[in-house]
Specification:
Distance between the termini: 39 Å
Shape: globular
Helix content: 40-55%
Number of helices: 23
Structural class: alpha/beta
Strand order of the largest sheet: 5-4-1-6-7-8
């Protein structure tokens, strides 16, 4: 991934600037928008969190849970572990309870040798002991606790020591401790690959129950994710049937309300295949929205998208083709490149002159990539490095001269978990950083809120969990 934002200090306080009127949660805004960028600055991370925790306990804890969530959050294990000991004993115990749902058991096992209150250690020992006993005696498939419990045969000396501490804490001899873990792992078929995969993916993947997962898909990229899996596993006995089914699900997919005319500038670089947010490849998100919006364009722009290229061009996804065929066609356009915003605006302006019905005009240009940026100006220089002087105001004037609506520019850096920051330097430009299902839904429904609303929309699912404490 290309990183154009080398100076993270430029973003300090940016959440506050973009959320005037929300001073009561200013520290939590700064935490929410900066916490994922501070992996190498533990002191700053802890300072931000402590300020947010004192300001609004529930919001700070919700951010922490979102930071760790392996399914729909940031999946940041190290940062989560750095912050967990800063909580009150009561809140640490609550997070121990939440671990199986949002993280991995080894997120909390190490607390037994950390300088936390004895109350926390007793609660942790009771929780682990009860779960391990249940896994050992139950006829049901066990949890993944046994997989993540430390063992003395590990190569890491710290893990060996932690295994000895845990066997003693559970009142077991080293031999009996090893036997119990081995038995539970064997009974649950918790081999290395399965356990790792299950820990890092939410339930409902193709490896589990495909039909249930597909029937539950509610966002375009979830359908594409299923389709890609069957495309990559053609020997699966259900591949043909499920592919046909998914093509139908896609064809019938609708959203309530009108969809704003959105033209996608699609980044086809290799990193979009390689990088992920949760279990989704960046490419799956980009391709899903590329197809989704192209199918809803009409007139001169029907079924079109634009390539992210030094020489951007229109590509047509033939109307009526099934989803799989369109995904295969997208793979033919994978140029690793920067692009030229001036050329893109020229393409839109020229094509707009062919429009005969005003409802066919492009109202929004959506750029999806994995590059980072610090400001609208940096965005302009990054995606148009040779012609930085081609400002948004210049092209707004060109569109106005032709009496054509100047499309809003939405630049979505999907990869960075550092979420949305509305642009302040240019009108008609929105910068979004990071993936969440709520951000994606807001893009689909053309309802991009301000920094505070984005934080609240993202954290709302986590607030209930932490408020139960």
């Amino acid at each position: 991934m290309t990183n154009f934002d080398q100076n993270s200090n430029r973003n300090e306080g940016l959440a506050k600037e973009n959320a005037s009127g929300h001073a009561a949660v200013a520290a939590n805004l700064d935490l929410f928008y900066q916490m994922d960028t501070l992996e190498n600055d533990k002191e700053k991370l802890e300072e931000l969190f402590q300020q947010a925790y004192q300001e609004n306990r529930d919001l700070a804890l919700a951010s922490l849970l979102y930071l760790r969530d392996v399914h729909k959050g940031m999946n940041q294990r190290k940062l989560f572990r750095d912050l967990l000991p800063l909580l009150t004993s009561k809140d640490i115990c609550r997070f121990i309870e939440l671990t199986p749902e949002y993280g991995r058991w080894d997120d909390v096992l190490w607390l037994l040798i950390e300088p936390v209150d004895n109350e926390v250690k007793r609660f942790l020992m009771d929780t682990i002991g009860n779960q391990l006993k249940s896994d050992f005696h139950s006829d049901k498939k066990p949890s993944f606790l046994a997989k993540w419990m430390p063992i003395e045969s590990a190569t890491n000396p710290d893990t060996q020591q932690l295994a000895r501490v845990w066997s003693e804490a559970l009142g077991l001899s080293p031999k009996r401790y090893h036997e119990i873990l081995a038995h539970v792992r064997e009974r649950g078929h918790l081999d290395e690959d399965e356990a790792t995969e299950a820990a890092d993916q939410p339930t409902g993947t193709a490896q589990d129950t495909p039909s249930e997962a597909e029937d539950a898909a509610i966002l375009p990229h979830e359908i594409v994710h299923r389709m890609r899996w069957y495309q990559e596993h053609p020997d699966d006995p259900d591949a043909a049937e499920r592919t046909e089914y998914l093509n139908k699900v896609w064809a019938d997919y609708t959203l309530p309300g009108a969809i704003r005319n959105t033209l996608v500038l699609r980044d086809g670089s290799y990193s979009m295949w390689k990088d992920r947010v949760g279990e989704y490849r960046l490419r799956e998100i980009v391709d899903a929205l590329t197809v989704f919006f192209s199918e809803r364009l009409t007139g001169a722009f029907a079924d079109q998208f634009i390539t992210f290229s030094a020489n951007p061009a229109y590509v047509e996804l033939p109307a009526g083709d099934p989803l799989l065929d369109k995904l295969i066609l997208l793979q033919e356009h994978e140029e690793p490149s920067t692009t030229d915003l001036a050329k893109i605006y020229d393409l839109i302006l020229d094509r707009s002159k062919q429009v005969t019905d005003p409802k066919d005009y492009i109202r929004r240009l959506l750029i999806m990539s994995d590059m980072t940026f610090a400001s609208p100006y940096e965005l302009e220089t990054v995606i148009n490095p040779e012609k930085a002087e081609a400002t948004f105001s210049t092209y707004r004037e060109k569109f106005q001269q032709e009496n054509i609506p100047f499309p809003e520019l939405v630049y979505w850096n999907i990869e960075s978990p550092h979420l949305a920051l509305p642009a302040s330097g240019y009108d008609n430009v929105k910068l979004i950083r990071g993936y969440s299902s709520s951000v994606l839904e807001n893009i689909l429904t053309d309802n991009l809120p301000d920094a505070y609303d984005i934080m609240m929309d993202t954290l709302r699912p986590y607030l209930g969990a932490v408020q139960d404490a």
